[in-house]
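[Solved] Which block belongs to which protein?

Original post:
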Amino acid sequence: MSGFLINADDMEAIATGGAFLGTGGGGDPYIGKLMAQAAIAEYGPVTVIDVEDVADDALCVPVCMMGAPTVMVEKLPNGQEAREALAQLEAFLGRKADALICVEAGGLNSTIPFAVASATGLPLIDGDGMGRAFPEIQMVSFTMQDVSATPMVIADEKGNSSVLNTISNVWTERLARVQTVQMGGSALVALYPMSGLQVKKSILRNTLSLIREIGQTIASEKASRRNPAEALIRRLDGKRLMTGRVVDIERRTEGGFARGTATLKGMDQDEGSTFKVHFQNEFLIALNDRDEMLAVTPDLICALDADGGLPVTTEQLRFGLAVTLIGLPCDPQWRSEAGVDLVGPGYFGYAQTYVPLEELPNGN
C-alpha cells in the first residue's frame, strides 16, 4: 500500500498550503492546525493513502466545518464535535468508516480531518472534493458524480446534533445552513458517505500532497527571504493578478456566510490602478478599475501577504494590508458545463460569464 505518514510537525506546512489553496476560505488554518497537532500528540501520526489503495466496497466519509469562517475566530470548536458527528453517522449507517476524506482543500477543512483521523486511527485519502474551497455543501465533485450528501450528521460544541436526509444536495445545503446559523454560525459535520468505488470516480486526486508541497515551498522561500508568490506561480501554472493595499473593506455575516468586497489600491507595478475582489467565504471574482475580470470562480483567487508572504484568508483582510492576488486554473472537472453551473459566477449572482483564467487580461 502506498502512502505517507503525517506527524505534528507536518501540520504547519499543511495548514499553510491549505490556507493558500483555500482561496481565502475554509476557516482559520491556525485553529485547525492546533486541533490536528494536539490530536497527533495524543493519538499518533496520520496515514495518508492513495485513492487506488481504497477497497471498492470501503465506507469513506468526509468530515468538515460548516458555517462562516469569521465566526470560528471567536467560537472555537471543543475538538469533539467532528468525532461525534462521525460516530453518529456510523451508528445511523450501522457500520464503521474505513477511511476519511477532506471535503475541501482549504484552511480549517484541510486540517480538521487530520485531527479526526488521528483520534480514530482511520487513514485519510489523498484528495478532496473541491481542489480549493467553496462556500456551500453541494459544491463538490461528489455532486457531479451523483453522490448524495446525506445521510449527514451536524453537531455543535454545546452537544446538539441531528441527522439529515434530503431529496438533493441543494436541499442538504438549505436545511443544514439553517441549523448551522441556529448553532451559532458554525458547526462540524460528517456527510457524503460513499463507497471506495464512488471515491475513485469523483475525488480530486493528490491535493493533500499538493497542499503540503505548497506549504513547504512557502516556508522555503520565506527562509530564503523571498516572497513565495513567484515560486508558487511557476509551480501551479498561475499568474499574478495584482499587488495592492486594502483601502476599503465591506464585510458582513449573512445567512451563515461571510460576504463582502475589498477595494485595493495598486502598488509597485500596479501603482495608479484600483481593484475590487468580491468574496462569499472565498474570493470569487477580481476586477480592475475598468470592471474587467481578472479571475472568476471556479478558477482560484489566492491571496498572499505582500510583505510577509503568508496566505491571507477573507476574515484576515483589513484596512492597510498589502496583498498579492494570484490566479490559478481550477481542476478540469469544474470547467465542464455541470461544474460551471454548480460553482460559476452565475450561481453567486454575478452578471459576468465564466471565462478561463488564461483568456483574461492581466491586472493593469
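(Second protein starts here: sequence line, then its C-alpha cells.)
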Amino acid sequence: MSTRTAGPGPRIEEIDVIRGMALYGVLIINLVYAFRVPDFTPAVSEPRRLEHVVASFLAVVVTEKAMTLFSVLFGVGLSIFRERSGMLLLPRRIVVLLAFGVLHTFGLWDGDVLTTYALSGFLALMFLRGRPWMLVAVAVTLLAVHPLISLYCPRWLATPRPEPADYSDQVLATYGRGTYGEIFVFRAHDVLARFKVLLIVAVPRALGNMLVGVAIWKSGILARVPNHRRALRWMAIGGIAVGAGYSLHDEVAAALAGTPSPWNLLRRVVWSFTVVPQALGYGAALLLALQHPRARPWLLRLAPLGRMAFTNYLTQTIVLSTLFYGYGFGLMGRLGVSEGVLLGTVLFVIQGYVSSYWLRHFKYGPFEWIWRCLTYGRWQAIRL
C-alpha cells in the first residue's frame, strides 16, 4: 500500500472546465427546487406560462444530469488522488469531507451532497483497483437499486410526516420566516427522519456514478482526448439524444398521467438509466469543444470555478440560505422559476470572477486548502 505524499501535480484543465459547468447546473437546480421552495414539499403550481416552459427545460436538460456529472467527476478525482498521493491518505481525505458534510447538513442546508459523497467514497475505495468493465457492471447494478425499490418496496422510502398540505405550510413557515434556531431544530429532525432514504437511495446512486468516473479515468480518455474523438463524438450525440429525448417523453407522459400506475413507476425506472448517458454526453461534448482553438479560450473561463468547486459549492449555500431563509432576507416562496434561474446565473458569474482573481494569488480555494491541510496532517503552502 502506497504511503507517498506527492504534490498536487499538474491540473487537467478539461476536468476543471467540465466540473465548472456541472457546478452551474447544480447551482440552478438547488436554487430553483430547494432554496426557492424546499424540494421535499408538494409540487408548487407556477402561475405563468413562462415558468412552466423554464421548469420543463430544466427537467429535460439539467435536473439530475448536472449532479450525475458532478458525481462522475468525483470518481475521477478519487482515481487521480490515489495515483498521485497514494491509497493510505484517501480514507483520511474522505473522513474530512464527511465532517464538512455533517456540519454543512445540520448547520446550513439539508440538501447537502458532501455527506453522501463521503459515505459513497468510502465504499468506492474497494473498487479503485477494479477493471473498467467490472466497474461499469457494478455501477449499472447500483443505479437500479432506487428505481427497483420505488417499484416494488415503496414503503421502505416512506418517512413519518404530517399530511402533505400541512407539512408544506409548516416547511414554508419555518424556513421562510423562522429564526436560525427554529430552522436548525426543524432541519435536524427532518434530516434524521430521512437518513434511511439517504442510505437506500442517494448512496447507491452516487456510488454508481463514481464508479463510472473511475472507469472513465482508467480508460485513458481524459489523458488522451485527441485519440478518442470518434468515441467522444458518438458519446455526445448518442448520450444527449437518448437522455434528453426520454426526459422530454417523461415530461409529457407525467403531464398526461392522471393517477400513479405500474407503468408510471416503470417509466421512472427507464428514465433513471438515461440520466448517466446524457450527463456523459455533456462531458464528451465539452471535451470535443475544448479541442477547437476558438472555443477553448472561452471554455477555459470555467476552469477556475471547477478548481474551486468545493469552495464555490459551500459559498452558494451560505449566500442562498441568507437570501431565502427567515433569518436572512426571507425570499422563500416569493420568486418564480425564471427569476430563480436569473439569480443563480448572476451568482455563478460573480463566483467566476472571484475564483479567477483568487487563483491569481493562491494555489487553492480557501476550503480546498483547509481540506488539503487536514488530509495531509500538516500546513500546506497556499500562496503562489
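Accepted answer:
You had them paired correctly. Confirming on the second one: The chain has a mean pLDDT of 89.
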